[in-house]
Amino acid sequence: MSDKVTLEFKGNKYDFPIVEGTEKEQAIDIKTLRSATGLTTIDPGYKNTGSCESAITFLDGEKGILRYRGYSIEELAEKADFLEVAYLLIFGELPNKDQLAKFHSDIKKESHVDEEMKKILDGFPKSAHPMGVLSSLTSALIAFNPSSVNVTSENDMYHAIVRILAKFPVLVAWTLRKKKGLPLDYGDDSLGYVENIHKMMFKRPSEDYKSNKIVIDALDKLLILHADHEQNCSTSTVRIVGSSHAGLFASLSAGISALWGPLHGGANQAVLEMLEAIEADGGDTKKYMAKAKDKNDPFRLMGFGHRVYKNFDPRAKIIKVAADEVLNDLGIDDPILDIAKGLEKEALEDPYFVDRKLYPNVDFYSGIIYRALGIPTEMFTVMFALGRLPGWIAQWREMRLNNEPIGRPRQVYVGENHRSFVDVNKR
Ligand code: CMC
User: Fold this and answer.
1) Closest to 217 measured CA to CA, from 371, 316, 377, 80
2) CA–CA separation, 371 vs 364, rounded Å?
3) I need a labelling partner for 209 at 20 to 30 A (CA). Which of 189, 269, 312, 374 fits?
4) What mean pLDDT do residues 330-336 have?
5) β-bridge partners, 13
6) Mind listing the pLDDT tens digit for each residue in 373-400?
């Protein structure tokens, strides 16, 4: 007989089955809890709640393991390129040469963005935060691609996916170019997927685009490391918005907004601003360590801590090495990197951080590489969104193919009991 958990409540006993994943994680299946017992559960921040069964990403926070579709993040970051990883995440298997070539060619055919979209971009002030612009433009894309996706048709699904993988990088590039006051640029079909994104972002009007292998390899690696992270805040947002059968683009736009926050994807911008502030303040890392530990001070050491990783974030290890390599290869000596390393060393020896299992996360060193690649600080979270796009798509597709019910949590009401209305003159 399979495992179960027995709950005793008001003299009655109720059995709930245990669900076991392929990596032997176990969860109590409480689907019948309310109908059987009248009880619900309460779990703010969903720290103990599994929202779905998923076959996309496995992570073990205690052991510091992260795998996409079974492949380790270390191996993918070293050997794969971003487009291969996108295909893997979305369709479940690494593509062979023909599949990859077709995927890329289908994406290229969809890479135009309606010229009318430029008018919408024009309406934003230059000072607008790129994440707000990106989220709005992604929503606006719906108006230019209004047909809803028939999720029972593999063909329809495939075309929606290819369309967004083609158009989203154009929006990312336009967001940056608007900020910098550069004319909007289009891609070049002769370039690789990531190389083309780089070209669309940085090509200067008066010069031919010159690709730099160090830069493209670093970008590929960063995008791969950010590509999926199971049921995090933005991914859960994408799934829950999509669960109402809102379309793919609408779900993605909501995911971008969720990612923007400094406790999530916005941390990469916050880390760099923090490191710059420490540098401007004389580089006194101890002062900021003390602030981070002071419970009366809202300051947190940005880029430290993670909801799931309580040992180390495997992505941070890869990025730390990459930051050293990229800066070295590009001949950049950035004092910010030294401050980051100093902070990390102090934190890893400090009982406050050790006891709470707070380690550098993916965002701690990524901003240093983005900065070395010439990407403005306000664009860092946009780069995260670009990397996370295939993960969001994969999770949305899985949720729709599994025909998951609409996401609708319950609550425990703690407000006033019933009371009678009091006329405004008598209050
Ligand atoms: N600096 C100082 N103290 C911290 C930090 C930090 N960065 N992170 C957590 N703590 C403390 C927190 O005050 C609490 O202390 P106590 O037990 O005394 O009340 C304890 O550690 C547990 O923190 P928590 O907020 O309950 O943990 P959580 O799992 O809810 O939050 C987190 C995880 C990532 C939101 C949090 O660690 C944090 O705010 N980190 C800084 C922001 C950041 O780097 N975010 C990027 C996350 S990785 C990329 C991504 O998800 O997008």
Assistant:
1) 80
2) 13
3) 269
4) 89
5) 8
6) 889 999 999 999 999 999 999 999 999 9
CA pair distance 35, 37, nearest whole angstrom: 6
Supply the pLDDT for residue 138: 96
Task: Give the tokens for residue 107.
Answer: 């994406």
CA distance linking residue 171 with residue 174, whole number of Å = 5
Q: Is 45 left (phi over 0), alpha (psi -120 to 50) or beta?
A: left
| Nearest by Cα to 76 from 395, 400, 425, 314 | 314
Distance, in Å, from the CA atom of 13 to the CA atom of 337, rounded to the nearest integer, reads 58
In testing the pocket of ligand 1, which one of 361, 380, 382, 388 has its CB within 8 Å of the most ligand atoms?
361
Span 208-242, pLDDT tens digits: 999 899 899 999 999 999 999 999 999 999 999 99
* Beta-strand relationship, 4-9 and 12-20: antiparallel
Ligand 1 centroid to Cα of residue 95, in Å, is 37
- pLDDT bracket for residue 152 (50, 70, 90): confident
* Phi, psi torsion values for 99, nearest 5 degrees: -60, -40
Residue 146 has pLDDT above 80, yes or no: no
Does pLDDT of 31 surpass 70? yes
Q: Atom 30 in ligand 1: which residue has the minimum CA distance?
A: 307
Model confidence band, residue 325 (pLDDT cutoffs 50, 70, 90): confident
Residue carrying the six token digits 């992260």: 66
369-374: long-range contacts at Cβ-Cβ below 8 A with a sequence spacing of 24 or more? 369/218, 369/222, 369/319, 369/322, 369/323, 369/326, 369/327, 370/222, 370/268, 370/272, 371/272, 371/334, 371/336, 372/323, 372/326, 372/327, 372/330, 372/332, 372/334, 373/215, 373/218, 373/219, 373/326, 374/202
Compute, in angstroms, the gap from residue 46 CA to the centroid of ligand 1: 15
Q: Identify whether the C-beta of residue 94 lies closer than 8 Å to the C-beta of residue 88.
A: yes
- With contact defined as beta carbons under 8 Å apart, do 369 and 214 qualify? no
Please list every protein residue whose CB sits less than 6 Å from any atom of ligand 1: 45, 232, 263-265, 267, 292, 300-307, 356, 358, 361-363
The ligand 1 atom at the shortest distance from the C-alpha of residue 361 is: 48
Specify the pLDDT at position 312. Answer: 87
User: Mean pLDDT throughout 61-70?
Assistant: 95
